[in-house]
Specification:
Strand content: 15-25%
Number of helices: 16
Oligomer: single chain
Distance between the termini: 63 Å
Shape: elongated
Number of strands: 18
Structural class: alpha+beta
Length: 547
């Protein structure tokens, strides 16, 4: 008989075999901090206009070459539980402000790096967390005092371009002015009745067409699809081009139940086929009689229906994506009809022109409208270049959205962070007890922004930080790092138009400090044995069409 081997006493004896358990500073806290530091260090080199790009190849062998932190974190598929907390903070920042994901990540990493030093000095995690909470509260009180400009008119292209250019420059240095102008036109053109509060990010669409260069990118009001028309009619124009949109196939209707037709002669077969054709022709004729010029369908286009569409002069476009159908409905003011038939005037939409065009060697269908949807046709020499431009456009549009919520701007290029650090250091000296050490380290963690900008530009970070502190001690609150000279020089960033959205800074400070405090609160890691069997899909299943 085999002898029973007792388990070792302690926490492990309560868990199933295969479970893992870590506790204490050395096993849990320091390991968590190290994982978060490594993650922050990996994206720190991508920060700023001179940041390096990462080459990522995901699990389906798709390659990404990008400096966008949100894309990097999404494709990395981080597994460490503590590092995942920082990823979640960055994702929350992306949802809340649409920009500043890298700032949130590297600042949280810097806070944890400073916390490690405090732990080695003998402070407890609770004391560090309380100090960090005091510091972030004070920083958010100081931040409104650093506002240097407010966008007064969100329909003024010049003001909007000035506000969103720095965000685009971090992804597309050199073409930021050109892209900012296009994005500003697109955003302003989609405002309904001049009410900026109702601006919807989804109303700015992107169509990527390979070829030419980034400077060939263009903007138009309406929608562009990389499709061909199915009929011989390739253009519909006039005072009012009427559009009917169907979510069903543009073909003869199918019965819901199966039926059997008994045909005894050739004449009966001809009569049956003729009857079906007459019904289809009648439906197409009614659509044309209702004044419809363009038919858009979400299903297949039958041969007979195509013949009658050509006969009655209807332009037919087939869209595969149901999301594209919905957006076109919003752009034209039409309703998606589930059955083929003549639409009522309320169910049809309007556009200025609907035509087939050719961009490079790619055929596109263009719906020009005066409605609240605008499209940027992005050109580029490779798919990776166009993807990076699309991310820059996304940042610009999200910054405009942030301005509709809060039009205030603060100095960029590290000026805001150094001023916050200077004032927090003064505040730390006034605090009694051990909290002053945590507040002091919080202020030192803010130096990570100018340091990252300087290191990525190839200059000595210590020289830059010293020059910034010296300028801010003299009361020059708008002085930041000049990344354009290639030297360790500082400049008045407000006069140069290097500004950041107030909302981005506000949420980045908040999310980074919360994430760092959450990691510090963990003193024990308990992992159950992994279950066998197939793993669930990463996205959780459901509709895979993310557009």
């Amino acid at each position: 008989m085999a002898q029973h081997v007792p388990r070792a006493p302690g926490f492990a004896s309560m868990m199933k075999e295969g479970a893992q358990h870590y506790s204490g500073l050395d096993e849990a806290v320091y390991k968590n901090i190290e994982a978060c530091r490594q993650l922050a260090a990996s994206t720190r080199t991508t920060y700023g206009p001179n940041g390096m790009s990462k080459m990522l190849i995901n699990h389906i062998d798709k390659m990404f070459v990008t400096s966008d932190a949100a894309t990097i974190l999404k494709e990395l598929e981080v597994q460490h539980p503590a590092a995942k907390l920082l990823v979640l903070a960055s994702q929350q920042q992306d949802q809340e402000a649409g920009d500043g994901t890298n700032l949130t990540l590297i600042f949280a990493g810097a806070l944890l790096e400073q916390a490690e030093e405090l732990l080695k000095m003998g402070l407890s995690p609770t004391e560090i967390i309380e100090g960090y909470e005091l510091a972030v509260k004070k920083a958010l009180e100081i931040l409104p005092d650093l506002v240097c400009h407010t966008v007064t008119d969100l329909r003024n292209k010049e003001e909007v371009v000035k506000a969103i250019t720095p965000a685009i420059a971090t992804k597309q240095l050199g073409t930021e002015g050109f892209l900012a102008g296009l994005i500003a036109d697109a955003c302003i053109g989609t405002l309904k009745d001049g009410d900026a509060k109702r601006f919807n990010v989804d109303n700015i669409r992107v169509c990527k067409i390979l070829g030419c260069g980034v400077l060939a990118t263009q903007q138009l009001n309406g929608m562009v699809f990389k499709r061909k028309v199915d009929t011989d009619i390739t253009k519909a124009s006039g005072d009012r081009v009427t559009v009917a949109i169907y979510s069903c196939p543009f073909d003869a209707l199918q019965t819901e139940t199966k039926g059997t037709v008994l045909i005894k002669s050739a004449d009966e077969l001809k009569a049956y086929s003729k009857g079906e054709e007459e019904l289809l022709e009648g439906a197409v004729a009614e659509i044309r009689k209702a004044g419809v010029d363009v038919v858009v369908t979400g299903g297949k286009v039958g041969d007979h229906a195509l013949h009658f569409a050509n006969k009655y002069g209807l332009m037919v476009v087939r869209l595969v994506s149901k999301w594209d159908l919905r957006r076109l409905c919003r752009a034209t003011g039409a309703r998606a009809l589930p059955r083929l038939g003549a639409p009522t005037p309320e169910e049809t939409g309007r556009c200025l022109t609907a035509r087939i065009d050719e961009v490079g060697d790619t055929p596109v269908v263009v719906f020009e409208t005066e409605s609240a949807v605008s499209t940027l046709v992005i050109r580029g020499s490779t798919d990776n270049v166009m993807d990076d431009v699309e991310r820059a456009v996304d940042d610009g549009v999200n910054n405009y959205k942030a301005l509709t919520r809060d039009p205030r701007l603060v100095p960029g290029a590290g000026a805001c962070e150094v001023e916050l650090a200077t004032r927090l250091a003064t505040y730390a000296d006034s605090l009694p007890g051990l909290h002053q050490y945590s507040v002091q380290k919080f202020s030192e963690a803010l130096e990570v922004v100018p340091r990252a900008l300087a290191e990525n530009s190839g200059v000595k970070a210590t020289v830059v930080v010293s020059a910034l502190y010296a300028a801010h001690q003299r009361g020059e609150t708008a002085v930041g790092f000049d990344a354009t000279t290639g030297e360790a020089s500082v400049t008045d960033v407000v006069s140069k138009g290097i500004l950041d959205a107030y909302l981005t800074k506000h949420w980045a400070l908040k999310f980074a400090s919360v994430a760092a405090c959450t990691v510090l609160k963990v003193d024990q890691i308990i992992m159950a044995k992994q279950a066998g069997g197939p793993k669930p899909p990463a996205g959780g299943g459901g509709d895979m069409d993310e557009d």
